[in-house]
Amino acid sequence: MSEKREKKGRIVKETLPSEVGSIVGSLLAGIALTFLILPFDSFLILILMIPALLSLRGNLSSPFIARTSRDMIIGDFSKKTWIENVLATFTLSIITAFMIGLLTILLDLMVFNFSILHAAYLLLIPIISISFTILISIPCSTILNFLAFRRGLDPNNVVNPIMTAIDDFSTVMCFFLTLIILGVP
Amino acid sequence: MKYFKKIFKESIIIVMISSILGLFSGIVLSNSEEILYAIPVILLILPALNSLIGDISIVLVSRLTTHLYIGDLSPKIEKSDRLKENFLGLLFTTLLSSLFLIILGFSIGLSTGIKYINPFIIILIIFMTVIIIFLLMFIILFISAIFLFNRGNDPNNLLIPFLTSFIDFLTPLMLIIFITIFIYN
Questions:
Q1: Which candidate among A147, B64, B142, B162 keeps its CA 20 to 30 Å from the CA of B53?
Q2: In b/e form, how buried is each residue of B94-109, taking b as 16+ CB within 10 angstroms?
Q3: In 10 A of CB B172, how many CB atoms?
Q4: Which of A18, A31, A46, A55 has the most B C-beta neighbours within 10 Å, making it the best mutation to test the interface with B?
Q5: Residues 124..183 of B with a Cβ closer than 8 Å to A: which?
Q6: What is the CATH number of the domain that holds B13?
Q7: In terms of pLDDT, which residue wins out, B55 or A174?
Q8: DSSP classification of residue A22
């Protein structure tokens, strides 16, 4: 009975602090979104792709983290599996970004008719923005997985919530950086 | 490149579906603009609320997957101590994190001068949304993880992309439904 309580306690003890960090990070992302993206003239069309970009942490980053932690726990982790994991995540990212861009163009043409931005922008923004985000996310999550594992913590409990905060905030910042680089109005 | 192919093959379809769902949540949000702007504190905490429920569900999937791979959890749909441990540990974490999110979100709201309409009902709505989605996701994810594992698939690759987008779509939708029932009616 006390062993069971100890295990439940471990889940709460390991997950709660990182979840608190995740909440703070997501609130920061919300504030950054309001102050950095809202002033753009093309905000109406940009807001269409933002939820899809934010959900990338779950689509690409989280499975990458979960696979890395599982490989570490079951003893399957090696340089080769990590490289293949990174390559797969990056390939999926580019395909997803292309699809988000394409669907935004279609929504703009067929439903909203905003005609604020050229189609090339709508295709390039998600591709560049996701590439930047993944370049931050992969090294950060790998290092965190290693640190958690070496300290005897379960990476499943700790890394995902911390990375949500980092990913949410870096997604908005990389999106903003992309808009600046491309000179989006 | 066997690992690369396995990840790519198992993830590509679900990642595509999730991206489409991500774009739909953008459309749902923009269509509920009026309700969300009438109760701005909901808008302020929405990204963090999505992250919270998403994180807990991701932790659940990665924990279940690891338990299944190391043989700690039987690949059958049945009650077990391991399952109860995960349920209670994650439920307690969810409730504590929600409390933290409400306190922080409302404090930020107060400091930025946001007007509050029926704060106690809003808090009740947030808790109801979190608990209902948690219970729903626990059942769906447990059954799906067992099913996928028994088919020889990695539940991490299929469930995590799906659940994040599904939660990003479901959370605002449930909030809007509850606001309509309890406040607008």
A1: A147
A2: beebbebbbebbbebb
A3: 23
A4: A55
A5: 154, 156-157, 160-161, 163-165, 167-168
A6: 1.10.357.20
A7: A174
A8: H
Joined together, the tokens standing for residue A60 give 């690409």
Question: Could you tell me if A59 and B19 are in contact, meaning their C-beta atoms sit under 8 angstroms apart?
Answer: yes
Structure confidence at residue A158 (pLDDT) = 77
Q: End-to-end CA distance of chain B, in Å?
A: 57
Asked if residue B100 has pLDDT above 80, the reply is yes
For A85-150, the three-class secondary structure string (H helix, E strand, C coil) is HHHHHHHHHHHHHHHHHHHHHHHHHHHHCCCCCCHHHHHHHHHHHHHHHHHHHHHHHHHHHHHHHH
Phi, psi of B81 (to 5 degrees): -60, -40
Q: What is the pTM of this model?
A: 0.74
The phi-psi region of residue B158 (left if phi > 0; otherwise alpha if psi is between -120 and 50; otherwise beta) is alpha
| Residue contact B160–A19, C-beta within 8 A | no
Provide CATH code, domain A48-182: 1.10.357.20
Range of the domain at B92: 2-184
Instruction: State ipTM.
Output: 0.76
